[in-house]
Each structure stands twice: as C-alpha cells, then as structure tokens.
# Entry
Amino acid sequence: MKIVLHITSFLLFLGNFNTIAQNSKNIENYTFDELSDKYYEYKFTDFLKAKKFANFYFNKAVKEKDTVNAISGKYYLREVHKNDSIYIDYLDSIINISKSNPTKIFPAYVFLQKGNLFFHKGSNNESLKNYLSALKCATLNKSDSLKFIIKQRIGTLKSNNNEINDAKNLYLEAYGYFNKNYKGLSNDNYFSLLMNLSLTYSNLRKIDSSRFFINEAFELALKVDDKVVLGYCYAIKSNLYFKENKFNKAIETSLKSIPQLLNDENYLLLMKSYSEIAKSYNYLGDRSNSFKYHKKIDSIYLEKQIINKNLINSYRWLKNYYRTENDLDNQLKTLNKLLAVDSISNSRNKNLSKTFTEEYDRPKLIAEKQKIISELNYEVSFYKKSRIYIVIVLILSFILFLYQFKKRKKQEQKFDKLTLKLKNKKVVENSVNSNTNVQKNLPETIITELLAKLDSFEQQPENFKNNKLTLSILAKELETNSNYLSKVINQKKVVIFLRTYEN
# Structure
C-alpha cells in the first residue's frame, strides 16, 4: 500500500504513485521513489521481481543509514512474504535502540508506524496503545509536527469509537497547527486532515462545514494533480450526496473513487464506499445491485479479515435478503458470520474504550485536575496576599484621614479666630468712622458735655432702677435733645466697649 490517507489510516513513508516506465537504468542508481514504483509495478504480477525491489530498497536504506526508508523497505518485505512479524520485529528493534537515546523523530515515528499497522488490521486497541506511546515520546522530545500527526491518528480512533466531538477537537487542533506552519503545502498529512474533518462534520450532520473541508482538499489535489487524493475526495463527496438523499449522484461519485481506493489498497474506505453504493441502490429499489455490493464487502472480509461496522451492516442486510428469498442455507451461513464478527467487534470496542479511558482520557483528566489545583492554590495565595495589602492600605488611609482631619480642624480654628478678629477690626473701624461723622455733625463741646453728664449718670446706681427711664426722659435730665444723646450713646459708648474688649 503506497499511501493510506487517515480517513481510515495513513502510512507516512510511502510516496509517488505513478509507475515509472521500464528503462535500462542500473538498479544501483535507482532512487527510493523509483524503487518503490517498481515494487508496486510487480507486486501483484511477479512475486520474485517485487521481492527483488523490496530487498534492494531496504538494503539501500541500511547502507545509507536512512532509518525512515529502511522502515518502508521492511513494510514492503512484510507485504511480499505476507508476514507481519517481519515488520513488527524490525520496528521493535528500532524502539529498543532509540529509547536510550531518543531524538525528535525516534522512537515516536516508529510507534506511529506500528500503530498504523494495527489500525489497518482492525486492532484498534493495539493501535491506540502505540499511538499513545508515540504521542508521549513526541511531546517529551518537542517534536510538534509529529505530535499533531499522531493526534490525527488518535482522532481517527475516537471517531471509530463514536466519540465524534472529541475527534473533531483533535482534528481542529491539528488543523490550526498545520495552517499556521505549513499552509498551502500539498502534504499527505494535510490531505488526510482535511478529509477527516470533512467526514467528522458529515457525521455531525453539518453538511456545509463538511463540504468546505473536502472542497479545500479537492482543489489542492487538482492543483498538484494528485489522482489518489482526488479518489479519496470523490469517496467523501459521495458520502455527502448520500446524506442529502441524492442516491444516483452518490453512486456516480462513489464509483469514481473505487479505482484509486483499490490501487491504494485502502480496504477500510473501500468497504465504506461499497456500503454506500449498496444502500443507495436499496433506497432506489434496486435490490439486485444492492446485493452485488454487499457481497463485495463480504469478499474483502474473507480475503483480508477486516472487521468494521460496514461489514456487520452488510451481513444483517444479506441475512434478511436470503430470508426473503427463502435461501435458508445462505441465511444460516450469513447469520453465523454475523454472530462471529459482531462478537469480535464488541470485544475490540470494549478494549478500545477501556484503553481510551485508562491511558488517554483519564491521564488527561488527572493532568487537568492538577492544573486546576495549581491555579486554585495560586488564587488562594494571591487572595491572602491581597487581603493583607488591602488591610495595610486601609490602615494607612485611616491614619492619613486622621492627620488631615486634625490639620483641617486646626486650620478652621485659626480661620475662625482670624475672621472674628477681622470682623471686630471692621466694627471698630466703622465705629471710628461713625465717631468721625458724629464729630462732623456735632460740635466737640456738646459731645464732651454729654459724655461727662452720661458718666455722672452711670455712677449713680439708683438711676438704673428706674423702669420708666426712656431716652426722652434722660435727655431732659441731661438738658439736651434726644437726637444728640442717641448719637453720642450709640457711637461713643460702643467704641469704648469694643476697645476694652480688644484689649
């Protein structure tokens, strides 16, 4: 398999899909891409030639100390010999070597490839365990690009486990990273990510969002003329037509994807496409063609032993089909197949859910809990410090208030005294002015005479006991008129009083 876009899975190391024409070029001068093309050219037609190119590919990588391509070479040999242990044992040997001296690529990349293999085989639980190991290594060794590729894979498993929103969040996280760092690159991982996002939104019944992402992938594939990716895009577009009940359009578009899915050996997605074609024919009332494509899914299982929900749905349909046809023999055979694969599927899903809970979700929750506790401790500490600061500020403010209050009181008292003094001074000045006016209005002799008479009157206490004493009576006794007497009393006597008060 040259490429597995992680709509269902993806193998990072595989490259060019076009077959290079036979030429006289010496095999020692072949590039890795040319050797890969030659291997795939003979894979299904000539075992010996395919084996030759696979061996040379691996030996060339070892000679050049190219571990990534050496892994690819072992994958080809695993396919040639149909022996998974050839590939797995080699991956394990690299993991053991690189664990003691990890880099940004190893052993994270090796765990990723091992997870991809188990994903292809339908062993989702084993796949997840390797992805989690890969994620841990990539995180510790700060390999961000690899970390987000791994998160895509975990998202795919989340999606297969019907945890659609969790899958969407992982995909969007990776999408943000790739858009920021690798926008516009026709990278296989980016194609895979766009398709996964499209399928996820399709599962959430958000058709417009799903179409947005698959159209982005389709346009980019057209731009770089990537026929395999275009095939995947047709597969997803057909899924959208199916959900919109456009069954003829779904069949037409899905059929365009089949050659590329077969060429890329993506049997998981191929089973999904066959299933949608079968369902579409069934909705159109064409049970004969529906039966044909359900049987294609059965054939893939018999050859590849791949179990998924499309296979289970096909067996349920076929069981009912044989029942209506009164074909008890095939009905019983299909029922036995259904019971067997359903049991295996349930067991795998339980293990997958358990692994997600124990090794991915639970550690994430614990980490989140620790983060919250740290934040709360910081907030409590900050709150305590804040209270101390507030108390100190309040005390200082109170002291400042008391100081300002006392200062203001003293200033008010000084001001009051000054105001009173100024008022008294003004009264005195007014009285002096009045006295001057009296002096101008009355002759000095009259004033002196009246003042002397008043002094004499005041020295006789019995005069103050006369309740009938009035100004007119007093004026007559002092032998003057009341007008003169009033002015002298009001002005001269007040001035004398105020001066005495001031002193």
Residues 328-441 form the longest helix (114 residues). Confidence is low (pLDDT under 50) at residues 1-24, 494-503.
